[in-house]
Design brief:
alpha+beta; Beta-Lactamase; five-stranded antiparallel β-sheet; elongated
Length: 263
């Protein structure tokens, strides 16, 4: 008979296998939301940026945001930038590891909260975002930072969440870190996407080729290459081609390995 610990390991390995095989962020996110729901966390908010300024959170426009929270909540919390005042967001932005949301309750008891923080707490209560854990991910760049908020399903208290974490917290933390590593390694797109020609032109610029060189390599005229580079700058919302190469690289949109099918 398979005991509970063995079942947990098998289930975790099955999840990791599927995540490693996934080829898109959407596919990974679908797997992850289902997996976290099995632990009792049915609403997630993930954010990752490679443009975090010192001592600040950075812009939503420069970040990858994934969530399955209610659209009205996202509108106020994310689009309305109320997240900037959220204690757990600030914690995840400056720490590595997992932290209980009881931190907010402790802060309220010890030193009170600001008016902006109270707005966050009231919005969270309105949408039932009252119990959970947050995880800050370790990054290799001081400009990069990722984190995720795991919101417990309706009806679970923070005390019950602590029991869940005591039993499964290590596994949940590992699975979230693997999910983050996979997501941050895949291309993520803005409202506009680079065409194949724009990507190729930027790749050759990144390799140090001149416009004339690229025109010969791609079998096009220099004017056409300039057009592709101009459109790429517009898509990436930057002013120079050098900035376009950097932005496309940060978003994993150039020098991308073609999708490989695993056995």
């Amino acid at each position: 008979m398979t005991n509970r610990a063995e079942l947990s390991v098998e289930t975790g390995i099955d999840y990791l296998d599927q995540v490693l095989r996934a080829s898109t962020i959407e596919e990974i996110w679908g797997l992850h939301t289902a997996k976290m729901a099995s632990y009792g966390f049915d609403r997630l908010l993930y954010a990752f940026t490679r443009f975090k300024p010192p001592n600040a959170l950075g812009s939503v426009d420069d970040s990858l945001i994934l969530t399955n929270h209610h659209a009205d909540y996202v509108k106020e919390y994310v689009n309305g930038e109320l997240y900037r005042a959220a204690p757990m967001v600030r914690w995840a932005a400056n720490h590595v590891g997992a932290q209980s949301w009881c931190l907010v309750q402790e802060r309220m008891r010890a030193a009170g909260v600001t008016s902006d923080e109270r707005r966050v707490i009231e919005l969270n209560r309105k949408f039932g975002v009252v119990a959970g854990y947050s995880i800050g991910f370790r990054e290799v760049s001081v400009r990069a930072k990722g984190g995720i908020g795991l919101c417990a399903r309706a009806g679970l208290s923070q005390a019950e969440v602590e029991d869940i974490w005591a039993e499964n917290g290590r596994e949940i933390t590992v699975l979230n870190n693997v999910c983050h590593l996979r997501i941050s390694a895949l291309p993520y797109l803005s409202r506009k996407t680079l065409t194949a020609r724009q990507r190729e032109a930027l790749e050759w610029v990144g390799d140090g080729k001149t416009t004339q060189d690229i025109a010969i390599i791609m079998g096009l005229t220099p004017a056409t290459i300039e057009k592709h580079l101009r459109l790429a700058r517009e898509v990436l919302d930057v002013e120079t081609t050098a900035q376009a190469v950097l932005m496309a690289s940060f978003r994993n949109q150039i020098f991308v390995v073609p999708e490989l099918r695993l056995a």
